[in-house]
């Protein structure tokens, strides 16, 4: 029983850290997209 609880806790920790990583990557991509859009608008004007 103790092994199951330990494995579940480790799996939960991995899943939570993966979600944070994906969210961070999404913010980075969004930021890069906004920078490209701003540059394109500056060039157009």
Strand content: under 5%
| Uncertain spans | none
Mean pLDDT across all residues, rounded?
81
CA gyration radius, whole angstroms? 20 Å
Number of helices: 1
Q: Write down the secondary-structure element order.
A: H
Report the sheet with the most strands, covering strand number, pairing sense and barrel closure: none
Estimate the helix proportion, in percent: over 70%
Structural class: mainly alpha
Termini distance? 66 Å
The total of beta strands comes to 0
Characterize the overall form: rod-shaped
Signal peptide: 1-18
Keywords: Cell membrane, Lipoprotein, Membrane, Palmitate, Signal
InterPro entries: Entericidin
Protein name: Entericidin, EcnA/B family
Give a written overview of the molecule:
- The chain has one helix and no strands.
- By secondary structure, it is an all-alpha fold.
- It starts with a helix and ends with a helix.
- The model has no long low-confidence stretch (mean pLDDT 81).
- Belongs to the EcnA/EcnB lipoprotein family.
